[in-house]
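Tokens for chain A. Residues wanted.
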């Protein structure tokens, strides 16, 4: 359950914000009394489905990345720390990375990379 909040807390906060806006708008005196109930149920349902779907896709991708890494493959992770042309980092066991829980860790690099920010590395070969 902690990984759910770790991965989805930003979207939960956004959903709460929209629920507050929905509550303010639907309690206006010029709207029918049922507007609040239907508005809250509708907005909550949409956000709940979207957050659940995002979590399921993220966990699936994380498991795929872990499996690829454990088999000796290479994954590419997003590096938001350096705003340069190359914002990605290649990670593999051959490059002295190891997997600790959901984090890729290396003694050669200062920061860790979360598996939710990584995808399978498939280099593009130039056409001849």
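Reply:
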């Amino acid at each position: 359950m902690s990984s759910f909040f770790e991965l989805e807390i930003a979207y939960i906060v956004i959903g709460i914000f929209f629920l507050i806006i929905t509550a303010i708008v639907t309690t206006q005196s010029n709207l029918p009394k049922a507007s609040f109930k239907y508005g809250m149920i509708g907005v909550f349902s949409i956000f709940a489905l979207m957050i659940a779907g995002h979590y399921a896709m993220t966990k699936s991708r994380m498991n795929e990345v872990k499996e690829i890494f454990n088999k000796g493959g290479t994954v590419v992770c997003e590096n938001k720390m350096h705003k340069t042309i190359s914002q990605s980092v290649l990670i593999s066991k051959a490059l002295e990375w190891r997997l600790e829980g959901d984090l890729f860790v290396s003694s050669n690099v200062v920061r860790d990379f979360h598996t939710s920010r990584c995808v399978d590395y498939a280099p593009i070969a130039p056409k001849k």
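The longest helix spans residues 34-70. The mean pLDDT is 88.
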